[in-house]
Amino acid sequence: MATTTGPATSTLNNEEIHRYSRHLIMPEVGIEGQQKLKAAKVLCVGAGGLGAPLAMYLAAAGVGTLGLIDFDVVDVTNLQRQIIHGTKDIGKKKIDSAFETLTDINPHVKLIRHEVALTSENALDILKDYDIVVDGTDNFPTRYLVNDACVLLGIPNVYGSIFRFEGQVTVLCAPDGPCYRCLYPEPPPPGLVPSCAEGGVLGILPGTVGLLQATETVKLILGIGKPLIGRLMIYNALDMDFRFFKVRRDPAWAPGTPHPTIKKLIDYQEFCGVPHASETPAPVASPVGEITVKELKAKLDRKENFVLVDVREVHEHQICHLPEAKLIPLGMLPQRLGELNPDDEIVMHCRSGVRSGKACGILKEAGFKNVWNVKGGILAWSDEVDPSVPKY
Amino acid sequence: MAKVSIPTPLRQFTEQKDTVEYAGATVGEVLNGLTGQFSGLRQHLFNDEGKLRNFVNIYLNDEDIRYLEKTDTAVSDSDTITIIPSIAGGLN
């Protein structure tokens, strides 16, 4: 029979002692550490690329209570990295699919479902019951919301984020440590930072970053090692390079005192400049004209005199392209403006129409008058004009 | 010549280069060299008033220049300037 000592621990039964034997024989964990893990309550925000691997390992490690926030549905494009879900789960709620996997990995874990979008109204109520929050979200409003709620509640936030081949990991909101706003006081305006849907991500990367977050979480629970408090780790998979940078607590936030500016949860969509989904977008002063893919097809068929520009990246061009289009990746457009004539009619397209919209804005600012954006991009072209063009 | 390390999200503006070198006595001078060559990068680092943006951190070696002399921080040839923008993830 196992015996328990000390506060905030839970008794292990014989099956659990057997299951966790590789932990128990390490002095850094031992029976006491395993009991701490069992007593711990960890909330994973998001069951996606980061949440998938970290929840699986935290469950396997014996974290006693695991909460999951997610309201998304499994899509085939998730499976390249979200290994908590399988092909049989396509179309299922991620939270259901994740719970099946986690229960199979470790039936001793108490799973708590939060099938909601985290909002300023519900965040404090959801987070308050947990010891540690692991942030695996995918957008700035939720990142700042999670941070501010953790600051107000005094809960550590194990932070991870990813882009293509690069990941960032740090531990925020630890006692007297920095928070996300100490690291980045303001979010970037929408559109200035490409998302993974736009920029892509190596499928393995969220696995690596998520497991670094899981490692930090377990260290915090056990109280061992040197957690990433006040240090930002940047991992580059291509260079296989780990670099560390200092993260200082805002000097205006004295140790042991409440945060000087975070007093309550605010409207994070507004803070991040994201228009509310329910609101109709405000009219733009100088809107960029749009044409449909069918109109573009008709212009090409009529052999009209205009320049079609594809602003995607070279590797996207290799997946599929329109033979008439001239390729100028969006990032290169400012320095390649000289290749375009302001007197020509210019039609711009990308994958979905977002980047080409930005490209039209760049041309308008540079004095081009006759500029058009192809609505829906090459995805719409595949849907409405030529289904032989692959969608990606 | 100080080395400037370009993060993955901003390499689309630097012809995919991951590191570049510029002469300059201060962080600001080195960054001016960088944005002079790659003009698309400028709006990502500086606002319209020419101030460094609050969602891009600039480190001299492992220290945030906000806690040094900001863009006036002196640079030597053995230093590495690293640009670290905030990234949200983007899992969908």
Overall mean pLDDT score of chain B? Answer: 90
The major β-sheet of chain A equals:
8 strands, mixed
Biggest interface found? A-B, 54 and 32 residues
In spatial order, strands of the major sheet of chain A run: 3-2-1-4-5-6-7-8
% residues in beta strands of chain A: 15-25%
Helix content of chain A: 25-40%
| Estimated radius of gyration of chain B | 13 Å
Describe the strand arrangement of the main beta sheet of chain B, using strand numbers: 2-1-5-3-4
Average pLDDT of chain A works out at 91
Can you offer a commentary on this structure?
The complex is a heterodimer of chains A (392) and B (92). Chain A has 392 residues and is of the alpha/beta class. Chain A has 15 helices and 13 strands. Chain A has helices at 14-19, 21-24, 30-39, 51-61, 94-105, 123-127, 140-153, 180-183, 196-199, 205-222, 268-271, 293-301, 314-319, 354-365, 377-384; strands spanning 41-45, 65-69, 110-114, 132-135, 157-163, 166-172, 231-236, 241-246, 289-291, 307-310, 326-327, 346-349, 371-374. In chain A, the strands form 2 sheets. Chain A has an 8-stranded mixed sheet, sandwiched between helices. A 5-stranded parallel sheet of chain A has the order 9-13-12-10-11. Chain A is elongated. Residues 1-7 and 279-285 of chain A have low confidence and may be disordered. Chain B has 92 residues and is an alpha+beta fold. The termini of chain B are far apart. The chains are: A alpha/beta (392), B alpha+beta (92). Chain A binds chain B through residues 46, 48-50, 72, 82, 136-140, 143, 160-166, 168, 183-188, 192-199, 201, 206, 232, 234, 236, 239, 243-248, 313, 329-335, and chain B through 7-9, 12-13, 15, 18, 38-40, 43-44, 53-57, 59, 62-64, 67, 82, 84-92.
